[in-house]
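Q: I'm writing a short methods note and want an example of a predicted protein-small molecule complex. Could you take the sequence and the SMILES for glutathione and return the bound structure as C-alpha cells? Please keep the output block clean; save any remarks for afterwards.
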Amino acid sequence: MKLIGSYTSPYVRKISIMLLEKGITFEFVNESPWEPGSHVAAHNPLGKVPALVTDDGQTWFDSPVIAQYLELLGIAPALLPREPQAALWERQVEAVADGILDAAVLLVRERQRPAAQQSEELLRRQREKIVRALDWLEYNLNEQRIDIDPPRLGAIAVGCAIGYLKFRRVAAGWCATRPLLVRMADKLFERESFARTEPPAS
Ligand SMILES: N[C@@H](CCC(=O)N[C@@H](CS)C(=O)NCC(=O)O)C(=O)O
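A: Understood, no commentary inside the block.
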C-alpha cells in the first residue's frame, strides 16, 4: 500500500496514524501538491494529498474516504464503532476536526500573502470557525461523548487538528480555556503513532 502525501499535511497525518495504529505496512511517497511538477494530480484529480494506492491498484482519496476504506479492511483495532449511529457520530467529530484544518490551512496560506493583499474578512471568518469548533469539542468532551482511551477516528482527527494549530501557531491561546482538550491532546501525543508522525520543524 502506498500513501501519497507530505510530512506537514495534517490530513495525511491522520491516515498515517490510522495505518500505524492498525499495524498496516505502507510505503510513504513524499509528494508536495504545491511543488511545480508534482505528481499528486495523477492520483487525485483535485490535486490534494493524501491519496492511497492499494496493492491491487485501486486509488482512494480525500482523507475521510481513505479512513472508511481502511476500516472496511476489518483490521483491528476498529477505529469506528460497529453501531451505525455511533459510527456516524464519530464521523461528525472527524468532520469538525477536519473543518478546523480547512480553516487553519486557509488562514496560513492567507498569512503567507503580502500584508497589503491579505483579506481581514477571510482571516476573521476562519478564526471564528476555529474558535467555535474548539468550543464544540470542549463541550462534547465534557459531555463524555468523545472516546479518548483508546482513541478512535474522531479523537485521532482532533489530535491532528490540535497538532497542526501548534505547528503553524494558529489560535495560539486555544488551550487557556479548554482544559479537557489540552488533556486529550497531551494523552494522544504520548502515543507512538503520533510521535512518529510529528511534522518536521520548518
Ligand atoms: N478534504 C481533503 C483535504 C486535503 C487537503 O486540503 N490537503 C492539502 C495539504 S494539507 C492539499 O493537498 N492542498 C493542495 C491544494 O489545495 O491544491 C482531505 O481530507 O483529504
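A: Remarks, as requested: The chain has a mean pLDDT of 97. Residues 84-191 form a domain with the Glutathione S-transferase Yfyf (Class Pi); Chain A, domain 2 fold (CATH 1.20.1050.10).
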